[in-house]
Write a structure and sequence with these properties.
Strand content: 5-15%
Number of helices: 14
Oligomer: single chain
CATH topology of the largest domain: Aspartate Aminotransferase, domain 2
CATH class of the largest domain: Alpha Beta
Radius of gyration: 29 Å
CATH superfamily of the largest domain: Type I PLP-dependent aspartate aminotransferase-like (Major domain)
Order of helices and strands: HHHEEHHEHEHEEHEHEEEHHHEEHEEH
Number of domains: 3
Length: about 475
């Protein structure tokens, strides 16, 4: 328990004294606990008894220990507990106790638990088929850079990201997503969540009003809330965000967060008419549009939808993309496409946050992109996910058509099953999670009162057999409600 270093310049008795004192203060040795005899301790440590006696004498003199004749040496029973006493936190997150922490840090506390996000398996959201990832190719690329590391990859990097990686991203976006950009506008981040946080820091002041889709992505609401924004829920329908409703609710909002290619969670595509309305409103209002293009690579009944950013002629759109969902979540690499006049602001904020993104994985993914592996992987996974989507739709219609309707199954790696009957989604999702089914209640995607009840079902990470079995088990859960 008490380490002794014979090579240390510190005397042995001092090492023993410090060790026992620390153990007593940290409550590893409790009041009334008996210490070993000086003779036994000296023999165990293989040292002279003299430094042990000196250490114990000092502990006794300072009151950390007490001697009981005929019984030995014990930790003092009169020592107060040195650990801080727990002070109840303030009743509201806006008023933390004693001003010790920022009120904003408590804005997300007190929410109900979400156990459907805890597991891995059938219907878990944002779970790709990682078992089908080309590990051999990826390992070869990793080994290539590990065997011959360039010195500049081991040094501090640029806040905007590794230059060759940004070039590769820009080339990919121009050809596959119709994004109008140069590499100088690309900022590399740790996934789309950091992109949202960074964007909110640059664009918003506390109290700024921001349109958010209703229902919509909770992670975006969290990032905007932490920036002090006042959220304005704007309804979505079959054409995506209802721009006219947003203008009626808040004409002078600072920004709008949208998922135009594949609305999360309902799956709608923002229509051409609404895209033009949204861009027109942003230009008139001096607002920014935060376009989250989180899984647009996977579209099954038509080619991928072109980006909203590609239609922007007024530099009002901040475009967010990620590799974490289309490759594997632990990669934690995403990117922003920033209007040219805002690049310096974004770069300076990024520098203040964490200086620069890790260079090594960027270098590996650069090769993965430029050598064609990414395109081949996306092409293959599009077929896999299409098959899994069809299996899920067929199973839901076969097993549960009397209680739910399927929506938003044309793209991505999830769909929504809305309830026809008077069913509550959260109790069903909680019960399903206890059965190992990770269904997300649609109501959790609402900022205000949920107008629809249903389940958001991911299918990317589960094979066809697992999907069919999962639907049968889900039917049993729903019928037991």
């Amino acid at each position: 328990m008490i380490p002794v270093d014979r090579r240390s310049a510190r005397p042995l008795y001092r090492q023993l004294y410090d060790g026992y004192r620390e153990a007593i203060l940290e409550r590893r040795l409790r009041p009334g606990q008996r210490l070993p005899s000086t003779r036994a301790l000296a023999a165990e440590l293989g040292i002279s008894r003299i430094p042990v006696l000196q250490a114990f004498d000092q502990l006794l003199a300072e009151g950390y220990c007490e001697s009981r004749p005929g019984s030995g040496t014990f930790v003092s029973g009169s020592l107060p507990d040195p650990r801080p006493v727990a002070v109840p936190r303030a009743a509201t997150p806006e008023a933390p106790r004693g001003g010790a922490v920022a009120g904003r840090s408590g804005l997300l506390l007190g929410r109900e638990p979400e156990p459907w996000l805890d597991g891995r398996g059938a219907f878990r959201m944002s779970q790709p088929a990682v078992d089908l990832f080309p590990f051999k190719v990826w390992s070869q690329l990793v080994n290539r850079h590990a065997r011959e590391p360039f010195a500049h990859l081991l040094q501090y990097g640029e806040p905007m990201g590794h230059a060759p990686f940004r070039e590769a991203i820009a080339a990919y976006l121009r050809t596959s997503r119709a994004v109008r950009c140069e590499a100088s506008q690309i900022l590399v981040v740790s996934g789309s969540q950091q992109a949202l946080d960074l964007t909110a820091r640059v664009l918003l002041d506390p109290g700024s009003r921001v349109w958010v889709e209703e229902p919509g992505y909770g992670g975006a609401r969290d990032a905007l809330t932490m920036a002090g924004a006042r959220l304005v829920p704007v309804p979505v329908d079959g054409e995506g965000l209802d721009v006219a409703a947003g203008i009626a609710l808040c004409k002078r909002a600072r920004a709008a967060y949208v998922t135009p290619s594949h609305q999360y969670p309902m799956g709608a595509t923002l229509s051409a008419s609404r895209r033009l309305q949204l861009l027109s409103w942003a230009e008139r209002a001096g607002a920014f549009l935060i376009e989250d293009d989180y899984d647009s690579e996977y579209r099954y009944d038509s080619p991928p939808i072109a980006s909203l950013q590609g239609l922007d002629r007024s530099a009002r759109v901040i475009y967010i993309g990620t590799f974490s969902k289309v490759l594997f979540p632990a990669l934690r690499l995403g990117y922003l496409v920033v209007p040219e006049d805002l690049v310096d602001r974004f770069a300076s904020v990024r520098d203040a946050m964490d200086i620069f993104p890790p260079t090594f994985p960027q270098a590996v993914l650069t090769d993965f992109l430029t050598e064609g592996h990414f395109t081949r992987h996306i092409r293959r996974m599009r077929l896999v996910y299409r098959e899994r989507r069809e299996a899920l739709v067929d199973a839901l219609r076969s097993e549960l058509s009397e209680v739910l309707d399927v929506q938003g199954g044309e793209a991505g790696m999830h769909l929504v099953a809305t309830f026809r009957k008077d069913l509550r989604d959260r109790p069903i999702a909680l019960r399903a999670a206890r059965k190992g089914l990770w269904t997300t209640p649609l109501s959790s995607c609402h900022h205000g009162n949920a107008t629809r009840q249903g389940l958001v079902l991911g299918y990317g990470g589960t094979d066809v057999a697992g999907i069919r079995e999962g639907v049968r088990r889900l039917r049993a859960v729903i019928r037991s409600t």
